[in-house]
Amino acid sequence: MAQTAVSQPFPVLLDLIMDATSxxxxxxxxxxxxxxxxxxxxxxxxxxxxxxxxxxxxxxMEAIRQRWKKFVHGGIGLFLLSGGxxxxxxxxxxxxxxxxxxxxxxxxxxxxxVFFLASALVGRSAGTQKxxxxxxxxxxxxxxxxxxxxxxxxxxxxRGVPVSAPAATDAAVTAPE
Length: 177
Hints:
By secondary structure, this protein is an all-alpha fold. Helices cover about 80% and strands about 0% of the residues. The chain has one domain (about 20-160).
């Protein structure tokens, strides 16, 4: 009778922990995705659950806005750090891949728009008061842009790294005479 190997619980997780070079990219991606979950989920809950219930209680909505501000500002910082790292780490794999850089660049522009709108909604500047005066509209815009960003990110991740054909100069060098 053949012996079967005893498997370790969570072997992939243990391998990642043991390989320190994989730990930083995994943590960076985890931070990035977790931040998106918290912020997109939070703005959606505020827009469609909290704000309608507290529509006649501006002092309570102001208290929520003040607490939410810490999440927004911290989240933007985490997005910039983890997103910057993730992009730099993936850049070498996508050298010459114009489609990747175009999609990621567009995603970054959308993210900057989201950062501005989210900051305007929790800010106190007179210059951004027009956004707070029509907060429901701008929260909806943020949610829609966030889903566009998530869609682009999903496509880019699933698409992977395209396999490039050998360059013509390489083929000429290795061709038999």
